Amino acid sequence: MCQRTLNVMHKLLTILTLTCLVSFNCGSASGDGAKSDFGANTRVRTIGAEAFWVETGADSRRFFGGSEIYASSTVTNGNDCRFRARVDLPSGARLSGLEIVGYDDFPIMGPIDLGVSIALHQVCRAGLNLPVNTKLVEVRSIDAPGYFRTFQDLDHTIDNKNCHYYVRLPFNTPGASCAGDTNRLSHVRLHWQRQISPSPAISTFNDVQTSHPFYSSIEAMGASGITGGCGGGNYCPDDPLTRGQMAAFLTRALGL
Amino acid sequence: MGLERWITYLVFIFGWAASSLVVAEGTKSAFGPSERYTTIGGESFISETGKDTRRFFAQSELYATGGLADVDSPSDCTMRAPVDLPSGVNLSRIELFGYDNSDHGTALELHQVCRIGNNPPTDDLIADITSNIGGTPGYFISGKDTDHTINNNSCHYYLRAIRSSQGFVVFSGCGGQNSRWVSTRFTWQRQIKPGPALPTFTDVPTGHPFYNSIEALAESGITGGCGGENYCPDNAITRGQFAAFFARALGLHWPEN
After folding, report:
1. Long-range contacts formed by B193-202: CB under 8 A, 24+ apart
2. Phi/psi of residue B63, each to 5°?
3. Which residues make Cβ contacts (< 8 Å) with residue B95, sequence separation at least 6?
């Protein structure tokens, strides 16, 4: 069953890919923007320039054009050029990439101009010890003047129980004032997918053993409290789902 | 029959609902195709420029402080807030609730910023709302109908609250408590994405009554069909299959819940 599903998925992917090639319709403006961020395929969470706050007290934030944020060069303390924005994704989501889009007019990155860079941080609590702040990934503007779009792969599972996340944008040049409108950020895009949680080593239901094709799904349903099984320690995976059972599952899961 | 109706439920209710599990909306009923509301308060706004003119009147009424001597330009009196609605929803109305003493009035703008490839971003005004300039001073609710599908893939959205816009001739400071923004309310509905021109499954042709729903389930990765490039739309669903759909759809089950 599982293998058959995989085969079908593979064929499906092939068909979709061919459709893309024929119609040139993939990744267009309206491409997958019309889907909600829901399901198992790749989702995008966009963080716009308006979500950023300055890290210190002197607010160097300015907007260029419609919605490109930069740090005003009239602010001369490099500490005041750094912006942060919170990141809010569901627990268990797999972060697969960080993409930044913006403008950088300086062709060379180095001691004079750091370019535009964004770092994604994870902060986790550790009992009563110091919190653990980890830089998960950092993405930089490309080494050419103009509008840019830079993507970097990532493989990280979100843990909202113990951690929180933010992105950090340092618009400062070393030992100098803020970069000014020659370095700008339009938005940050986080690529992610939903995942089913890892399953326990021992099965919860007698009739759904660890080798069952839907083992992880049914365990996840049980762990979430959406189902308690069909009685007698069983889940009855091959029974038809009645309309009444469906109503119970949906309302419990979604809090309707 | 039962399965078909079930598919419709599935797509309507949680096929388009997941981001509501992420974005707090103050209501637990943000599922399904009927009208939903997202309300953004004054606490979400930040000043557009470096001069932070934000102040709160009473409990939660945002205004911009500062006389002519304190601010450099009208932009110093302008606030912005990010807008986060689920992709694919239709935004049907936007309303501003606030206070205005009717000297210059206040305005609110919803902007969409999109970027394709390495082109400069475009910034489009989706809707703008103004208070009743020259009318009776007091609290007001001003709104506009819209018909706009949210696209979070290529775009992001923000609100701009402007102290004075129309009838503005000489800059006279931010105006302080004479103009206040309490909240902005978005009315929206979930939508099922129109199906593609070519069907994914042999047994669900484009004319099938649940074509859009089934295609949406497939595209979201929730189903791969029943084998042989079919979806078997008239088969009864088992409890095991339901668990697979549901766990994939919602990304069950991680410790936060």
Report:
1. B193/A34, B193/A35, B193/B88, B193/B219, B194/A34, B196/A19, B197/A23, B198/A15, B198/A19, B200/A12, B200/A15, B200/A16, B200/B225, B200/B229, B200/B231, B201/B225, B201/B229, B201/B230, B201/B231, B202/B228, B202/B229, B202/B230
2. -140, 170
3. B129, B141, B142, B143, B144, B184, B185, B187
Please tell me which of the candidates A67, A149, A195 has its beta carbon nearest to residue B111. A67
- The answer, yes or no, to whether residue A11 has pLDDT greater than 50, is no
- Mean pLDDT of all residues in B52-81: 86
Å between A91 CA and nearest CA of chain B: 6
**Closest residue of B to A71, CA-based?**
B50
What is the rounded distance in angstroms from the CA atom of residue B216 to the CA atom of residue B219?
Answer: 5
pLDDT at A222: 94
The tokens describing A91, both together, are: 């627990």
Structural domain spans, chain A: 37-193, 196-249
Domains (range + CATH), chain B:
2-16+192-250 (no CATH), 34-189 (2.60.120.260)
CB contacts of B29 in chain A (<8 Å) are 255-256
Alpha-carbon distance of A31 to A192, in angstroms, equals 17
**Do the Cβ atoms of A256 and B16 come within 8 Å?**
no
Mean per-residue pLDDT, B182-202: 93
pTM of the model: 0.81
What distance in Å separates residue B166's CA from the closest CA in chain A?
20
Of B2, B82, B221, the CB nearest to A40: B221
- Name the token pair of A38: 């829901």
B217: its two tokens: 């389930």
Instruction: Tell me whether A153 touches chain B (CB under 8 Å).
Output: no
CA distance B36 to chain A (A): 13
Which pLDDT score is estimated for A172?
Answer: 72
172-191 of B, contacting A, C-beta below 8 A:
190-191
Q: Do the interacting molecules here have an ipTM over 0.95?
A: no
Chains A and B form CB pairs within 8 A to the count of: 296
Name the phi and psi angles at B52, rounded to 5.
Answer: -80, 100
Q: Do B243 and A19 touch (CB under 8 A)?
A: no
Residue of chain A whose alpha carbon sits nearest to that of B4: A243
- Terminal-residue alpha carbon distance, chain B: 33
pLDDT digits (tens, 9 = 90+) for A119-155: 999 999 988 889 999 999 999 887 678 899 999 999 9
Q: CA of B153: how far to CAs of A7, A90, A190, B208, in Å?
A: 29, 18, 10, 28
Span A54-80, average pLDDT: 87
pLDDT in the model for residue B131 = 83
Mind listing the pLDDT tens digit for each residue in B97-127? Answer: 999 886 677 889 999 999 887 788 999 999 9
Residue type at position B201: F
A37-193 is classed CATH 2.40.30.70: no
